[in-house]
Amino acid sequence: MEARDAIDNPKLRRRSRLRRKAARRALPWIVIIAIFVMWEIVVRAFDIEQFVLPAPTAIFAAGWEWRADMLDNAWQTFMTTAIGFLFAVIFGLVGGVLFGSSTLVYEGLYPALVGFNSIPKVAVIPILVIWFGIGTVPAIVTAFLISFFPILVNVAAGIATVEPELKDVLRALGAKQWQIVQKVGLPRSMPYFFASLKVAITFAFVGSIVAETVAANKGIGNLMLVASSRFEVPLAFAGLLMTSIMGIGMYLVAEFIERRTIGWATRGVDAVGAPRG
């Protein structure tokens, strides 16, 4: 009876949708809290040593105790990651347009780009140290190198999916190649572009953290390295937690911009492709 009333009554339908929406928003927080609770229970139940796997309460306590250093190093990591990621977005977008709209550029440069991307970026860091010295620049360059390729490939794929028949019709109407790319190719590639941003931002943090553990004297990566050398494992885990918080924050920013700019393409589907009820 209640289900039938909900179907017949628009107010009840709207209230039901709002409840489902609130439940979906609360679900990630419930899962995260449940993970931390189970983690705490397992560590205490099996009496796991702190230097092997610290409990969440010990991690939070270490983060609070070292909050000043944690925030200072987190800002350094965030700055280097954001700068490297910004360069990756710019060059990835421009390169994706060139690769997707020009067969000559694609056939000439793409194999070399794939070969360079297959090189482990950690192997490039010593060379960056020789060129730029220890500090911020190697971390920025590493974040750029590791996040550039996914953006380029996705934008190129989005532009390349424009149907040949549509291109022929537009050319018959007098459109130039750059007009086809601007009016059709770029809008078509935007869902691919924003999907690549959500992946690339995690790669950018990986690049920054790895570079900071090798070629920096500041940042979350350096903090974790120092903490591990002193067997302050809760502090190292606190650094991991801080990195994940920054990554989630930048992911949410990208998702917010996506919804405000190309909501027509993502309406009805959430960030991982699941339908929105």
Topology of this structure?
Layout: H1 2-8, H2 10-45, H3 56-65, H4 67-101, H5 103-117, H6 125-132, H7 136-160, H8 164-172, H9 177-215, H10 220-229, H11 233-261, H12 263-266
What does it look like?
There is one protein chain. This protein has 277 residues and is mostly helical. The chain has helices at 2-8, 10-45, 56-65, 67-101, 103-117, 125-132, 136-160, 164-172, 177-215, 220-229, 233-261, 263-266. The protein folds into two domains: 1-47, no CATH class; 53-266, MetI-like (MetI-like fold), CATH 1.10.3720.10. It is built from twelve helices and no strands. Helix 6 (125-132) packs across helix 7 (136-160). The longest helix is centred in the C-terminal third of the chain and has 39 residues, at 177-215. The chain is flat, with a radius of gyration of 24 Å.
Order of helices and strands: HHHHHHHHHHHH
Round the Cα radius of gyration to an integer and report it.
24 Å
Euclidean distance between termini CA atoms? 22 Å
Briefly, what CATH class of the largest domain?
Mainly Alpha
Low-confidence stretches: 268-277
The name of the CATH topology of the largest domain is MetI-like fold
Chain-averaged pLDDT: 83
Main sheet record: none
Number of domains: 2
Number of helices, where a helix is a run of at least 4 consecutive DSSP H or I residues: 12
Strand content: under 5%
